């Protein structure tokens, strides 16, 4: 999902529902909805198969701090819903915050792949690792609890300029059939530098805000309940099995 302003690439985004696009607040500051346009379709932007959508409303988080990049999350309400199909599927959200429960994480976008070069015309993706918040804070003391970090220990794998607003997605351990968006590309110190991971908005901190704002706008989005446990890891399941074992005859 790509966001244009005055016909030029602005930021990435992700499909939250047929009406809503999830992106970063810093992409929307001082922007006018009349000049914004959403495109989706093929991975390449040089094709004629792109669908363009107009924006009815843009929403910046009321506590977005452009200096510290805190609360860097925003929403776009479309003028009309777009057709969902196998290539246009809403991303799932999760309240799970323990990074040990996630695997196979990727970030994607049309941003530059080499600093100071032009935007890439084909959607790119790279696998990255989630990094513990304390380790990230040690490297970059300006990160807040509303942020999460991801990258490669050796460097070389990261989001970069032009990828802002795009999704960081992962699969849950024990359930490889569903992709969840954990982060929104927000900021970083350079691109792909060793020991300096990319910084992402921590989406799980904003589920209530998303539900509140979308409901107030008349197009409610309701995230599905998500305990974060597969059946075999559920503490209730373990407790149930424990009592079953007690009741079984010797």
TrEMBL record:
Keyword Cell membrane on entry: no
Peptidase S1 domain sequence ranges: 1-215
Gene3D superfamilies: Trypsin-like serine proteases
GO biological process, one term: proteolysis
GO molecular function annotation: serine-type endopeptidase activity
Family annotation (PROSITE patterns): TRYPSIN_DOM (PS50240), TRYPSIN_HIS (PS00134), TRYPSIN_SER (PS00135)
UniProtKB keywords: Disulfide bond, Hydrolase, Protease, Serine protease
Keyword Ribosomal protein part of the UniProt annotation: no
PANTHER family: SERINE PROTEASE 52 (PTHR24253:SF8), TRANSMEMBRANE PROTEASE SERINE (PTHR24253)
Protein known as: Peptidase S1 domain-containing protein
Species for this entry: Rousettus aegyptiacus (Egyptian fruit bat)
